[in-house]
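Page 42, continued from yesterday. The earlier attempt failed because a stray header line got pasted into the input along with the sequence. Redoing it now with the clean sequence only.
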Amino acid sequence: MTNQEKWIEFCKTHDADVQLYGKPFWLDAVCNGRENWNVFLVEDRGEIQAAMPYYIKRRMGIPYITMPQLTQRNGIFLKKSASEKTEKIINYENKMYNQLIAQCEQAGFSFYNQCFSIETTNWQPFYWKGYQQKTMYTFCIDTPNDLEQAEKNFSQSVRSNLKKARKIGTVSEFDDIELFYRINSMSFERQGMQNPVPFALIKRLYEGCKANNALKMLYAKDPDGNICDVALYAYDATCVYAMLCGTDPSKRKYNLHTLLTYEGIKFACETGRRLDFEGSMMEGVSNSLLSFGAEMYPYYSIKKVYLKTPILSQLMKYKLYA
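This time it went through. Structure tokens are written below.
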């Protein structure tokens, strides 16, 4: 079996252990087919101990590893260490990471660029091998089974907006991905921009999540029955991810996006999951998410240029770090 086939089989029997972004159906969607993703594996007597799924792109015919659209983090799956001693846990992590790094550097890629999950707090083996790291942040509400506590953490402005929205708006689930995309695109059109995410990608993602019971899509209507806002949440066994949203610019005054955000938080809390807003390094977005009581969680963006040819190496560095 190929590494990809092994990973697909592994995920069938360890679904709850694998985060959404590393699942085969997700990778199939965001990478546009299995020919565009693969996985490095560390095995022990036929059992997977560590895995690094990755997306393959090409520039000037040269392959490289990078992040696919709509995938904030993927990085490394690591089987939990059998020891509870810090020294043994770190040594185990370092051993697994070093084997993944060795495979990656021997695979013939021009450069490497991945963002790890918030659970990956040890990147030292990558540092020792010359990789660069940048700390990013996502924002999460982590109060499983405790919606009341989540609501207590809302700011006064969120409470006020939510109270108003409840009086005029209603929320329902729906399955019309074309309608979702139309309203999702309006937020960009208002700014004179095209939607940066193509419909084909969102449709693949919708179909993959729907088939794997990993999707919740909502709209909010105003008192006249007009759809004002939409939101798409994807989820795995432990987390709900706020993937995409959109607002009809002519209906912004109703501020029903607050209502959809609340419904996402409610769904996460009532199903024992964390709500991950997917974060942003933009100041305005950061402040908005904090107002919902979200906490900051750091994650690592890890990069390295492998090319030895000076001109191409400099070009890759410019594209990566500019």
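Notes: The mean pLDDT is 93.
Reminder to self: strip header lines before submitting.
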